[in-house]
Amino acid sequence: MAEKFIIQPCGALRGAVEIYGSKNAVLPVLAASILTEQPCILQNVPNLSDVDAMTALLESLGVRSRSEGDTRFLDASGVNSLDASYELVGKLRASFLVMGPLLARFGRAKVPLPGGCAIGSRPVDLHLKGFAALGADIDHSHGFVTASAKRLKGAKIYLDFPSVGATENIMMAAVLAEGQTILENCANEPEIVDLANFLNTIGGKVRGAGTDAIKIEGVPRLDVKNPRHSIIPDRIEAGTFMVAAAISRGDVTITNVTPDHVKPVTAKLKEVNICVEENEDSIRVFCDPSHKIIASDLKTLPYPGFPTDMQAQFMSLLSTAEGTSVITETVFENRFMQVGELKRMGAEIKIESRSAIIEGVSRLTGAQVAASDLRAGAALVLAALRADGPTEISGIHHIDRGYDNFDSRLNKLGASITREE
């Protein structure tokens, strides 16, 4: 049964909220558990539908899994299938990340082309070029990609674009390759570092993660006994709650956050006249209820630039600013899907190519809107916090993909959100 949010005007949010484990970090780590026959213990795992989808895919391949709270126990010693399910892969783009581990450990993998949010073309060409450089034979047929190799061999690989997914997939494949792999122009997001730390925990030899050159010394097998790893806090979730505090003109302390990971969001909030206080593992975002938000321009870029995953949420905030703002999206070509719905709520936004021109309005109005993807859904929730009158948001299954108990956690800060079928 489809669900929707009914959001009533709430005023300023106040209080504290704890950030959970990162969606974008846990998905590749789950896939990487395939690389070892030894049981793995993952902690700080968020309760998300995307995590459930990835776990279901692993279980279909023969991985045993069980959960206790936010701890996930995985055992890939009994993997009995190298063919990923079309139905399961179609639910989640990150499911393509099982190809590297399957290929590295078993010498073969067959995976359908992936699904996920419709925010633009995210081809897997770079993944496949990397596997081919490591010595794999690649075959495309009937919507599936099959990769095979007796044993991968280390290589020097230059990525045409610092793709996060390609960096992760190639890095996982290379840990069991023969010899050294050097991955250049790779992504350096915190999630890449977290995956490298997990790979090293299970016996890999990865250096340089977090820079644009990663070196991997291949090992014959990964056999550390009972490795344990804790997933990093979700920087996009943290940024979303930071913007929630700002758009409601509230006072919210975000805990269990790594301030360095959200520097671009912090800098932009300060630029639009929001107060931000950083501590070792917490951030306070606050302003006076009558505070004036100043218009600002931003451009999305690969890390450490402003994250594309925060663009939609910031558009909601800038829709309430004084003056004209311009957002330029450089990462995905179809990531302004929230614009039409925000305009239904009274926002003044015009699209020109890959830029959105936003004329700030004094107040948004409640309306019936639909979430088209994960971050667009979050943006609509934030806009509803500042709107006059009730807002009804359908398609909230998108939001549940990346935010654990988003509605109840906002309610604890003073929001008024009900979930209805």
Fold and architecture overview:
This protein is α/β, with parallel strands linked by helices and 421 residues long. Helix content is 30%, strand content 25%. The protein contains 14 helices and 25 strands. The strands form seven sheets. The protein has a four-stranded mixed β-sheet with strand order 22-24-1-25. A four-stranded mixed β-sheet has the order 2-14-16-15. A four-stranded mixed β-sheet has the order 4-5-3-13, covered by helices on one side. α6 (164-174) links the parallel β9 and β10. α1 (23-32) packs parallel to α7 and α6 (164-174) packs parallel to α7 (190-201). The longest helix has 13 residues, at 49-61.
Q: How would you summarize the topology of this molecule?
A:
Elements: E1 4-8, E2 14-18, H1 23-32, E3 40-43, H2 49-61, E4 64-68, E5 71-75, H3 86-89, H4 99-106, E6 108-112, H5 125-133, E7 137-141, E8 144-148, E9 156-158, H6 164-174, E10 180-184, H7 190-201, E11 206-207, E12 213-217, E13 228-230, H8 235-247, E14 251-255, H9 263-271, E15 275-278, E16 282-286, E17 298-299, H10 311-318, E18 324-328, H11 339-344, E19 348-352, E20 355-359, E21 364-365, E22 368-370, H12 374-385, E23 387-388, E24 391-394, H13 397-400, H14 406-412, E25 416-420
Parallel strand pairs: 2-14, 3-13, 9-10, 17-18, 21-23, 22-24
Antiparallel strand pairs: 1-24, 1-25, 3-5, 4-5, 6-8, 7-8, 10-12, 11-12, 14-16, 15-16, 18-20, 19-20
Helix pairs in contact: 1-2, 1-7, 4-6, 5-6, 6-7, 8-10, 8-12, 10-12
Q: What would you say about this model in short?
A:
The protein has 421 residues and is of the alpha/beta class.
